Amino acid sequence: xxxxxxDGVEPVTDRIHHNSWSANLEKPIHGDRRDAVVxxxxxxxxxxxxxxxxxxxxHGAHGRPEEYLGPALREAFGGGVEWSYVEQCxxxxxxxxxxxxxxxxxxxx
Length: 109
Hints:
By secondary structure, this protein is α+β, with helices and mostly antiparallel strands. The chain has helices spanning about 30, 35-45, 65-75; strands at about 20-25, 55-60, 80-90, 95-100.
């Protein structure tokens, strides 16, 4: 797994989640920078233990997330994940649920 953090963008999480959880990708920087949403989504998935899912709550400025996150998730994780669109939030954002299957664990040097 790679380092998907971006300069000037706060990390989405700092630990591996051994439960299902939600990642907030609706901050103002996420509205301004779609690359921050993609990087945060990849980071969130990397930090979700196999057998669980992460709800990616994305900024509404970029439309439905599966259109731009789907290719990024496929490239980064191949068949190790599957995703489904959940809903549009009342605030305009969107929720994409990503289920994580068995894969190599994330290690930090």
